[in-house]
Amino acid sequence: MRILKNIFLFLFLATASVSYAQLTISTEGGEAAMGTNLEVDITANEFNSLSTFQFNVVWDTLVMTFVEVKNVNQDLTSYTEATNFGLPGDGSIKDGTVSTSWTKFTPPAESLADDARLFTIVLNA
């Protein structure tokens, strides 16, 4: 029985030592007067030793219209607006959606500081 407890404890500690926090993507709210632009930073936390991500940013098209993506994080290898974004009207990307994906095919994986800006979406009210 004691051997079984020791094996369980070893497996628990081994599992705990290789656990990683989950990537969190965030935005800050904002306000814009009608006819003016709102810049929304898309930031990341727990971006530790990653080699890929993919997500969409969605907004209400009755309230805001897409202007541009800018301030793309240059610390990520080969992460550019031209190759890593699907913008409204591109192929199957719906109005009110920006999609992004990034993959680093060769080691090592990459890390960013907490609250690192991945990119900024500019919307018009």
List the helices and strands and how they pair.
Layout lengths: L1 H16 L6 E4 L9 E9 L6 E7 L6 E6 L10 H4 E2 L10 E7 L12 E9 L1
Antiparallel strand pairs: 1-2, 2-7, 3-6, 4-7, 5-6
What integer value in Å does the Rg equal?
20 Å
Integer tally of domains: 1
Q: Count every helix, treating DSSP H or I runs of 4 or more residues as helices.
A: 2
Strand numbers in spatial order across the main sheet: 1-2-7-4
CATH domain fold name: Immunoglobulin-like
Task: Quickly name the level 1 CATH class.
Answer: Mainly Beta
| Major β-sheet annotation | 4 strands, antiparallel
* N-end to C-end Cα span: 67 Å
Beta-strand percentage range: 35-45%
Kindly describe this structure.
- The protein starts with a helix and ends with a strand.
- The N terminus is likely disordered.
- The strands form 2 sheets. The protein has a 4-stranded antiparallel sheet with strand order 1-2-7-4, with no helix packed on it. It has a 3-stranded antiparallel sheet with strand order 3-6-5.
- The protein is globular.
- The chain has a single domain, classed as Immunoglobulin-like (Sandwich).
- The longest helix has 16 residues.
- It is built from 2 helices and 7 strands.
- The chain is an alpha+beta fold and 125 residues long.
Give a quick rundown of the structure.
With 125 residues, this protein is α+β, with helices and mostly antiparallel strands. The protein has helices at 2-17, 81-84, and strands at 24-27, 37-45, 52-58, 65-70, 85-86, 97-103, 116-124.
